[in-house]
Amino acid sequence: MSVAGPPGPVMDRDEVDRALVRLDAEHEAIETSLLALQDHAGRRLLEGARLTGTTHERWLGTEAQITLLWTYFDAYAGALNTAREVRERRRWPNRDDLLELTRLLRGQSVTVAGGSSSGAAPSITGPAKLTEQFTLEELVARMNDLYAHSLDMVVAADAVWSALPARIDLLAAELQRTRQLAHSVGVRPGEHPSGDDLERITRELTALREQVVSDPLAFWQPTRGSSAPGGGRPHTDRYDHAARALEDVRREIDAVLTVRQDAEARLGRLRDVLSRADRTLAEARSARGEVLAKIAASEVPAVSGPPTALQEQLAMAADYRRNAQWHRLSPLLESLEEKAEDELLRARESLTAVTAPLAVRAELRGRLDAYKAKVARHGLAEDPVLIERYDAARRMLWSAPCDLRVAEQAVLRYQQAAADALTPRVPHQGGPTDRRGEA
Questions:
Q1: Residues near 230 by Cβ (< 8 Å), separated by ≥ 6?
Q2: Which pairs count as long-range contacts for 328-332, CB under 8 Å and 24+ apart, including other chains?
Q3: Where are the domains of the chain?
Q4: Distance (Å, whole) CA 38 – CA 214
Q5: How many CA atoms lie within 13 A of 330 on its CB side?
Q6: How far apart are CA 168 and CA 205, in angstroms?
Q7: ω into 93 cis (within 30 of 0)
Q8: 35-83: pLDDT as tens digits
Q9: d(C-alpha 350, C-alpha 327), whole Å
Q10: Residue 429 has pLDDT above 90, yes or no
């Protein structure tokens, strides 16, 4: 370790004392940082974990860097102790002491054996050498560099482990509750798409947790432009995707639960609607027979039979409810509710179409009786023409089968006769006015 001479001007006593104070402070700061790194929870987890992938590769280099850090620190502490011993020889150091102190404090006085060959990253320590020589300032800069790289890796891994596994475990617990609920309502793998989704989410969460634990750095996203150790954040894309998929399944199961709660009431309403449709069709068939018997020369539409297909689907829906197949019951109920309303509307339209001739006959009967009452109020009830035409129209309307076209003409003739009879007569000049026809 002999040198040709001191590196630069020889330091005086005050310069030596100030340098020792500064180096002592740096020594204490470096020691504190190294001890904190040694006790860091992330470093302890890295030492005990079965690492894979990127984390495994980087941890091999980081372990070597931490080992080298302690080697450098021991060399730094040894050189500093040597300088203190030389300074403590005399209160007023002589020139030889100052020459040696200048060499120790400013020269390349620290020799580290096999520093680069211990496994540190080449980008930090340079190419492999058997020994390296440093000044104390160079050694501090080298330790700071190694410390920053080591701490960056440890903090990143610890940040991922602190963020993701706990969230994955909470989501897995929610997934388990959802699976139990899904099973209770018949949402099972192979029987319902949501059951298959739950199986897929389960596999994804299991694989995700294993990878997060063994390779946390695969889920670390550094902040661009940041030089601070641990600058970045865990990226949670896969976790977020699984959480959204589980939420979609939960909404589907909630819909199925709603079906289970309302199934009996909805089935009851469906039975009632279809029953009303059946009764309406039965009434239409009965009315059609009456129309054919009582109305002549009229086109009467045919009436279809009861909706057997809907009854079969209703029976199937009831069977789904008994067997708790809610996922199948839900779409079937929605379809049946729409079809049942359509069927009731069709039955009502059929009844209206079939009974139209009877409605026409009833309207003619009402019109005939209304005119008869009007004529009677005006004192013309005994008019022989009106009596004759009324009886003719009445026989046609109250006989079976009734020809509506002929009956309508008879009613019109009676109306005309009644109108003529109620028209005021033109009085003789100078005589009284006949007001019997005035309303």
A1: 151, 152, 155, 156, 159
A2: 328/186, 329/259, 329/263, 330/255, 330/256, 330/259
A3: 13-155, 161-258, 260-354, 358-422
A4: 21
A5: 16
A6: 7
A7: no
A8: 988 889 888 989 888 999 999 999 999 999 999 999 898 888 888 888 8
A9: 36
A10: no
* Cis check: omega of the bond before 401, within 30 degrees of 0: yes
Between the alpha carbon of residue 339 and those of residues 235, 355, 428, the distances in Å are 50, 24, 73
Task: Quote the CA–CA distance of 150 and 56 in Å, as a whole number.
Answer: 14
Residue carrying the six token digits 């079976």: 400
181/179 Cα distance (integer angstroms): 5
Cα R_g (the chain), whole angstroms = 53
Instruction: Give the rounded distance of the alpha carbon of 362 from its chain centre.
Output: 61
- Please state, in angstroms and rounded to a whole number, the distance separating the CA atoms of residues 380 and 213: 109
Q: ∠ CA 169-172-175 to the nearest 5 degrees?
A: 155
Assign residue 8 a region (left: φ > 0; alpha: ψ between -120 and 50; beta: otherwise).
Answer: left
Amino acid 391 reads D
In a 13 Å sphere around the CA of 217, the CA atoms on its Cβ side amount to 18
Residue 29: how many other CB atoms lie within 10 Å: 12
Asked whether the beta carbons of 418 and 370 are under 8 A apart, the reply is: no
DSSP codes, 197-259: HHHHHHHHHHHHHHHHHH-GGGGEEEPTT--STT-EEE--HHHHHHHHHHHHHHHHHHHHHHH
Kindly report the pTM of this predicted structure. Answer: 0.57
Beta strands in 29-162 (DSSP E): 110-113, 131-134
Structure tokens, 272: 């009632």
Give the list of residues 6+ apart from residue 85 with CB closer than 8 angstroms, or none: none
Phi, psi dihedral angles at 42 (to 5 degrees)? -65, -40
Q: Is the pLDDT of residue 176 over 70?
A: yes
Total H helices, total E strands in the chain: 13, 6
Residue 174, amino acid: E
- Residue-wise pLDDT for 107-143, tens only, equals 777 778 765 434 444 444 455 567 788 888 888 889 9
Does residue 109 contact residue 130 with C-beta atoms inside 8 Å? Answer: no
Residues facing residue 111 across a β-bridge: 133
